[in-house]
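protien #1 (seq + structre)
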Amino acid sequence: MSGEAPHGLRSDEAARRLAAEGPNVLPDARRRGSLSIAAEVLREPMFLLLAAGALIYLLLGNVREALILAASILVVVTITVAQERKSERALEALRDLSSPRALVVRDGALLRIAGAEVARGDLLVLSEGDRVPADARLDTTNDLVVDESLLTGESLPVEKQDGMPVYSGTLVVKGQGRAVVTATGPRTEFGRIGLSLAELDGEKSRLQRETARIVRWVAVFGAVLCLLLVAFYVATRGDWLAGILAGITLAMAILPEEFPVVLTVFLALGAWRIARDGVLMRRMPAIETLGAATVLCVDKTGTLTENRMAVVDVPGGSREEVLELAALASEIDPFDPMERAILAAAGERAGALRDGWMLERDYPFTSDFLAMCHAWRSPDGERRVAMKGAAETVLALCRLDAAARDAAHAEMALAAERGLRLLAVAEAGWPDAEWPADPRRYDFRLRGFVALADPVRAEVPDAIAQCRRAGIRVVMITGDFPGTALAVARAAGIATEGGVLTGSEIAKLDAPALARAAKRVNVFARIRPEQKLQLITAYKADGEVVAMTGDGVNDAPALKAAHIGVAMGQRGTDVAREASALVLLHDDFQSIVAAVRLGRRIYENIRNAMRYLIAVHIPIAGMSFLPLVFGWPVFLYPVHVVFLEFVIDPACSIVFEAERSDEGVMRQPPRDPREPMFSARMLGVSFLLGASVLVMVCLGYWWVAASGLAGGEARSFGFASIVFGNLAMIHATRSRDHSIFGGSRRPNAALWWITGGTLVALAASVYLPPVADLFRFGALSPGYLALAALVGAAGVAWYEAYKVFRPRRQDLPPPG
């Protein structure tokens, strides 16, 4: 077929087929267009209240007011659709990033691409832990075993041979293989039965559940209050339609419809912002958990180090012979950087041996056998067994006298001091026709060592120092030699005063002893995958909030068990990605620190937005019914509440979302994850803030009315006071620590656009006669306008003083 070859598909041919056949994705019913979003908006309570208000105005014969509310309905729908589409686009981008990765051969070179970019005819390279991205037919296999339970329901994995099909969505649980893609997207077996793959987690977060509970309480309270107001209005003034209109106005003023909007926008855009820093958020609850992380468990290779292995020494034997044997003990198509470094150092002679000899038996690396062992047969029948691996594993299988053993241990100690990865290399023969099932039966002879260097990433020491300043303990868990692990930990800046704990030592500890050891030790070496789960469990039992990085199939249980599982995006398997809440797209430790910073920022901004929303509804709702209770003329009508909503909605969903974190956000201890967002203190301060603005507005309105100001001018004054109070609350609640004047030095363009736009709209509604007539306003003198601004600002004065005198959150001491 045109474009296909053993070297893979050509890039131009792949692009042509993608354009003709579409991306390798299934139709997603969750993606909503603008019309479907608009249809959902039309069922929202705020829309129904506006429609009811317009209908009552028509029944009252006030066509102009009805048309105004009808126009406001169109504006509300437009703004809401724009907000929802912004969130949808962010989520769609995250879904695209979260699709399985695929390793293909294009133009003769290995290339890792998104699963959606796989084209018919592509040559897939499959390895243990990969999710098959498309239907394909196997070209070559090496002990390939695939779990097809997703399609067939059969629990047992299936062994695959050359020429057999593999199907999209199935999981490689063992071995390797290459396959040519035969069908993509909806044309796959997976697509034909209508399933959906790699969905983002749709579960409700703790914060979303807490917010929904608050919204229900406020909605019930508001409904009761509205009914009481209607009854009171009818009893005192005898007008049913006007009473219902007053009740609708109060319902619009008290309805907490922005709460779910804030969460939707903040979580979606927060995940999008984190993705720009190279961190994919697969599960939304992880955003609110990030700021509470207290322990960060990381792997060494590729996370703290550059994962750029290079052979720097071959002690204890002939360089050529040792590297040749190490190459023979490496995978045929190696992905591991260490094996690639060995093959590069071994040169063409070792490559010729690997091409000319037949690999007849492969003994894989396991948690019980920390080595790779390959049995080869030459064209003339010679049998040769090559092994490389952890020095202690290889040495235990070699017959060494005391002097040789001492010399080997000296090499291990020297490599550990230098922070090098040391592999022992051994060789054996085998005369029998049948290869043994257990590699321990071979009579191995030690041939030497291969020392490899993997330098610590330049940015890691500073990033770890930031974690320590933020109260986050960094723990290294590695399968490497203990001495090497300690040397790398010191270079990275991880505290090593507690020494190192090995997997064999952990195996001897019961749960309480392991919990005690985990409190003091920050470096764990020669750890088996199942022991990672033990460590995560120990930290969680001690009350820690645990984040953990991983990349392999065996890491999946620990990643799932951690509060925040973090998978490696480049070298990680699809199984690890699917078990994780976060995926590091660039396998960069600095990205984790950036994600923690953003997680703290997002949570704090949500808290500030919620504080503002609780506070801002109180003066609006209060001025919807207090004038009626006091026997004053009706103060607020639906059109006034709509005006205020046009300030509140962008303020909470744009201004607060764009707010940058405080300078000291990474010098604060992690927050307690058990602390509710809507704590008694937070609710109390928010209610007091809103009530103080309500009191000042109410007193100001009473004073100007009592002083003889005309009804339209008095309403203008009261409304302007609410608007100024609203703006003051936006500026005051931006930060729990900074004053309005201190916070103004922090750039936030959206804040000033909203502030300026609100003031322009207020001026138009007061001073432009056609607009003022719609609002029932009279023009204010500059003095009264200034007084209204003073009244609104006075309502937040105590909160500014409270920030100054309340106990501050103490910065953590710098790391020692």
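ok now protien #2
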Amino acid sequence: MNRIALAVRMARRELRGGLTGFRIFFACLVLGVAAIAGVGSVAQAMLTGLSDQGRVLLGGDVSVHLVHREATPEEHAFLAARGRISEAISMRAMAYALKGGAEADRQLIELKAVDGAYPLYGSVTLAPQIPRSDAFACTPIGGKTICGAVVEQTLLDRLHLTRGGLMRIGSQDFRITAMLANEPDRISGGFTLGPHVLMSDAGLAHTGLVTLGSLIEYGYRVAMPPNASIADFKDQAQKAFPDSGWEIHDRGDAAPGIKKFVEQVTMFLTLVGLTALAVGGVGAGQAVGAFLDRKRAEIATLKSLGAEGGLIFLVYFFQVMAIAVVAVIVGLICGAALPFGVEAAFGNDLPIKAAFAIYAGPLVLGGIFGLFSAAAFAIPPLARAREIAPASLFRDIVAPVNARGRLPYLLASASAAGIVVALALVLAPSLSFAAYFLAGVAGALIVLRVAAGILRRVLMALPRPKQPNLRLALANLTRPGASTSSVVVALGLGLTLLATVTLLDRTISAQVKDSLPGTAPTFFFIDIQPDEIDSFNRDIARFPTVSGYKASPMIRGRITALNGIATKDAKVASSARWALNGDRGITYASVAPKGADITDGKWWAPDYTGPTLISFDAELAQGMGLKLGDTITLNVLGREITGRIANLRDVNFSNGRQNFILILSPGIIDKAPHSFLASVRVEPRDEEPLYRAITDKYPNVSTVRVKDAIAQVNGLLQELSDGVRAASLITILAGLFVLAGAIAAGQRARLYDSTVLKVLGATRAQIAAVYAIEYGVIGLLTGLLALGAGTLAAWLVTQQIFEVPLEFDTGAVLLIVVGGGAATLTFGLIAAWAALAAKPAGLLRSP
């Protein structure tokens, strides 16, 4: 019989004894695998749902978006020749409730005007479900025309209206004919600042809001023939209208924001699952070590009888991996079931209809991660046992032998870990984030391991206290075989992640809720027309508490080339790519804006009239490989404008003020049709009067309350941080499993200690006090170490990524420290109960 067959046979016989000693190892693997497979399955269901409903969510097979201008007759003919076409016009506007013929409450809205062909796919659901022609009809009443519109319930609540009520948008009155219960392509529109209002294109024409230069988006959806090629459509569009400024999406990318969000959340939760596996790996090594400790006599006997070290390694490696396989299978079953649980619990709350099913990809990935993680952590203690001489095995618990596994075994362990890391990096949508996360976890593990060693040495060096209970507790923390290091590393990693998330959440919330409102304007005003700007400036100046007022010309444009190279072909860092995706706000100025932080170059002369010069964001310039004198080509209203970079500025987007990455010199850009963007800050007593004065006089101007936008953003951030915090609990749960395993591993030693102490006259209360001190100290110290590591990690993120000061949340972090101590104390006392309850006589008589 060859060695492998013999090892399998012996391992099979050993396994008849069950999972004794491997329950924690089993539970940690199940938890990590279930998290990875379940999260991946839910994400796959979401992404499959996005793909299956691409036409409905997009509103067509392809969509073309233009800002400021509608398609020319030639462009329209091009689109119409390739399928059925539907047109929609989207913009922000103000809606005013009409009560007694007078304007009352008012609210910023997201307005969309559609034609008779809308929607090409899916259906609009109204309550009550009346014909669209009736819902949008314009009817002469009392010498004026009143058109119909459908709105979301939120708008009725804010305007204090009911169905059938009247509201004014621009210069046109609308009757609310129905509630908008479902807008099939809404999800493709992205972030919104107000309730949605749907009307006909004829109704919009009556409002007077459509003027040249207004911030309006024209969307054209095309339903193509079954066999038509989307790639051919894009190629033909590029050749026919290379300078059109079209932003084209297709049904495969109907909701890029949602898709990116799902991918990023999946990546994060998968990494959290890997962290749980890493924590479980500590438990795996601990479980294998405890298992080998119990098998010490068998291993020594086998070696004395001539068994080779390789055979012994294989026997116990096959046992460990057999248990790992069973754990992975259970974890995969749980992961496969998770999507159906999500569907039952949250199906109606999801933004899209997910295609819940069993997906092989996430399950295979979870299985690979689980098995290779188990191997990576199990091999080192097995390899160590292989090298210990038979006589040393009996003394190893009190006089550990400094034996290490042979290089091939260590390389095998490192290779298994490397495969896990490589897969995580390759499959992650953001390589840099995944790399930083995994490096942070590895760094935390190393720091905690080193800190645990230092802590143990410090405790050993301390003078022994005279108080017996305290002296015994400290001795238990430093004696051979103590679980101090395992507890610090396993539980500490979970608490470190929680501390990091908590401090980052506090910092971001402080920026959004505290710092931003203190520096941001009170209002933003959008779409001020050129013939209104002088009057608008005078009206703002009437309010005594006005400060920081700024009105800037604004037009939308798209960066199409860098130094003559098309943006799609240019080498641009991923951190700067966002500025090339879609239209950006552009302004012009003769003199540098107040507070402009010019880092390189200088501003052009106030009377400059030469070729276009550009002031550009310094950080974006670095990401795009641009420097002074380089050129940027912009597409503005279908016309190409090329300018040379004259200076670079440090643009601070965190202050909530007007921030343009592109400021051009006058001469060409100022001749293009444009509107003005204004911002102002006022004291609370002038906030409502100014709001009413501006919205009463300028119905075409969209007025954005910054505090409302901040509240909406803060709500989204709060939901996200709650989800991240909940995800970190997976790691903490794995840490608690390992904690329980570490305590259980020392159970035999506890029984022996308890018996001896009882024989010497100690009471149960005194022994319990020893254990309470021991576990309380290690838990408290673990919490403090986790707090330090989490604070360091959060500080690095806030300084290097967010570039804001770290906000320390004393209450939350103290809860983490206390929680770590309480968890350790609770688990320790529960595990010690058997030792406390055991009768000395029975144990003394046992062999």
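The chain has a mean pLDDT of 81.
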